[in-house]
Design goal:
single chain; alpha/beta; Arc Repressor Mutant, subunit A; Rossmann fold; Helicase, Ruva Protein, domain 3; 5-stranded parallel beta sheet; 18 helices; 38% helix; elongated; P-loop_NTPase; AAA+_ATPase
């Protein structure tokens, strides 16, 4: 499919995570090359002028993220139609003519705002976006044992678990991580994105027909360039409707609701917001605390049957309108519950990889303890560690979890700072931290962390 404003360049080598297929997008030089309808762009331009009062050509190019030739086409049409007028030359930096709306133009802008409250950069057409998602897929199969070892250097994991994670990432299938609380499931899941360090293009918004859906979210998408120091003029280089970003990671837990997984329309602002999985496209979507959401686990899991099997997601825009988009992300379910409590075996087979995170061995616990005391600048004391394991964990029958060394040592240091003391930690300080860390019912500590 030959789409406007898109041109591929040759693939780079695939020996390292940052050397995958490169995708170049050129700046459209005409209205036709934007892939958008002229009425949509005219409405958007009028809304910007209505919002600002008056704008010169440089500010319009910046606001709309469009090149000068495209803007010239739109302005020429609006002047001929009597919707805008030239207010004079801008004497400030950049110069250029300054434009404002006529009475006819203000009426058209109000009509446009009644249909859509979106006032932002010109959107990227959904047909182009489909091709873009496929071109910069996260399922490029470039994860190998060496890359896993580098990404998780210093992280303590059970033998074989690192290779299981690597194979699961290359499979293109969903992953379920399960095990007791505090065993590092969320921590390890969130670090998997380290293996995909190449930058990708994220549209600021996409157009599905005449509906504009905001995609870029600064809370999710981290810019890979310096937005305050652009290296290209707006009328040259790449398509400014797209931003260069790191691959996204979306992590959601018990607060997740079903409406967040579909396009949301706000009737007050008259704007559409992208669902979470669309914001996570070409990245990772981690559903943490699976089974703690307000909806039944089966309802949430059933939402993913079609995307997991067909690699397509069908989004509902309301009014009987639907849109099909590639489902290109690594979907991770993380839970403290037994997976069989969440779904039957027939459904779990669709997920593919089920990875069990368990409590630590004594040697693994010691390795993490050594890492934590080094971070705190505390000398390693084997007798103190022995006291924590044999004098606290074992009598209370509390399994060894990866979070315990960091939390117990940190609380003991908190007490030292409060009392104005310093130096090596004592067994009494660790015991104090222990009794403040675990929930106590009837005088007995409970084995699970809060």
């Amino acid at each position: 499919m030959n789409l406007p404003g898109i041109a591929r360049i040759e693939e780079a080598g695939r020996d390292s995570p940052g050397e995958h297929n490169t995708f170049n997008v050129t700046q459209p030089r005409s209205v036709a090359e934007t892939g958008l309808s002229e009425p949509l762009l005219i409405d958007l331009l009028c809304k910007h002028l209505y919002d600002a009062g008056s704008l010169d050509t440089a500010r319009l190019m910046e606001r709309l993220a469009l090149a000068g030739p495209v803007l010239d086409e739109l302005l020429a049409f609006l002047r001929k139609d009597g919707r805008i007028e030239v207010l004079g030359q801008n004497n400030g930096a950049g110069g250029g003519l300054r434009y404002g709306l006529t009475d006819r133009g203000r009426g058209a802008a109000r009509d446009a705002l009644a249909r859509s409250g979106y006032i932002g950069p010109a959107p990227y057409p959904v047909d182009c976006y489909r091709e873009l998602l496929l071109a910069q897929t996260i399922h490029h199969g470039g994860v190998n044992a060496k890359a896993m070892q580098v990404a998780f250097e210093g992280v303590v994991l059970h033998n074989g678990l690192l290779d299981q994670l690597g194979a699961a990432l290359n499979s293109g299938r969903a992953i379920m991580i399960y095990g007791p609380a505090g065993t590092g499931k969320t921590f390890i899941s969130s670090k998997l994105i380290r293996l995909f360090d190449e930058a990708i293009w994220i549209p600021q918004a996409i157009a599905i027909g005449e509906a504009i859906i905001e995609v870029f979210d600064p809370q999710v998408h981290e810019r890979a360039d310096d937005p305050a120091r652009p290296t290209l003029r707006l009328d040259q280089g790449h398509d400014r409707r797209l931003l260069r970003c790191k691959r996204p990671v979306v992590i959601t837990g018990g607060e997740l609701t079903m409406d967040q997984l579909d396009i949301r329309y706000d009737p007050y602002t008259r704007q559409y917001q992208a669902p979470l999985q669309l914001k996570a496209s070409n990245g990772m979507f981690i559903i943490d605390d699976m089974g703690r959401q307000r909806m039944a686990p089966a309802q949430l899991l059933n939402r993913w049957i079609v995307p997991m099997e067909e690699k397509k997601d069908f989004l509902n825009l309301g009014g009987g309108r639907h849109c099909e988009l590639p489902f290109d992300l690594i979907l991770v379910f993380s839970t403290n519950l037994n997976p069989l409590e969440l779904a039957e075996e027939a459904f779990l087979r669709r997920i593919g990889y089920k990875l069990h995170f368990d409590h630590l061995t004594r040697n693994e616990y010691e390795r993490i303890w050594r890492q934590e005391v080094e971070k705190l600048g505390i000398p390693f004391d084997p007798l103190l560690l022995r006291y924590v394991i044999e004098g606290l964990h074992q009598p209370e029958k509390v399994p060894l979890a990866p979070c315990h060394p960091r939390d117990l040592l940190g609380m003991a240091r908190d007490r030292q700072r409060y009392q104005g003391s310093s130096g090596p930690l004592t067994p009494q300080e660790l015991e104090w931290a222990w009794h403040n860390y675990f929930v106590r019912l009837g005088g007995a500590e409970q084995g699970d962390t809060p």
